[in-house]
Amino acid sequence: MAPSISYRNRNPGNIRWGAGGFTSVKSRGGMKGEGGFAKFPTVIKGLACLADLLGTITYSTLTIREFFLRYAPAADNNTPKMYAQFVSDFSGIDIDKNLSSETDVFKLLKFMEAICKMEKWEA
């Protein structure tokens, strides 16, 4: 089985290239990669960009349910409701909780890990 696009792009969150002008993509060394997604020089920079994205006003003020309507829209062949429920269950963060109000670092890391799993971060 061939490595996933997220793996080849070293972009575990499958952050889109040029996603609303998100400056962290470029500041983390991102460039245009396969499938319209950003490509990073290292997986650590890709993960750092995902962490940056979670802290933006665009995403941090949303509930988990709202977050995935924006992050993984149905227009991109995603199922936002299922995605949100999986991440909520995996991380232990309530689906109706604002991301900015979560202070448990372990839960936030699990949130990121769940995104990586959904985005098929694997060789």
Give your account of this protein's structure.
48% of the residues lie in helices and 3% in strands. The protein is globular and about 35 Å long. The chain has a two-stranded antiparallel sheet with strand order 1-2. It folds into two domains: 54 residues, no CATH class; 61 residues, no CATH class. The mean pLDDT is 91. The protein is mainly alpha-helical and 123 residues long.
Total number of helical segments?
7
Instruction: Kindly report the spatial arrangement of strands forming the biggest sheet.
Output: 1-2
Number of domains: 2
Q: Report on the biggest sheet.
A: 2 strands, antiparallel
Number of strands: 2
Uncertain parts: none
Span between termini: 8 Å
Q: Mean of residue pLDDT?
A: 91
Strand proportion, as a percent range, falls in under 5%
Order of helices and strands: HHEEHHHHH
Helical content band: 40-55%
Structural class label: mainly alpha
**Radius of gyration, Cα only, in angstroms?**
13 Å
Provide the fold topology.
Layout: H1 5-8, H2 23-27, E1 31-32, E2 38-39, H3 43-54, H4 57-60, H5 64-71, H6 80-91, H7 105-118
Which tags fit this structure?
2 domains; 7 helices; 123 residues; 48% helix; mainly alpha; two-stranded antiparallel sheet
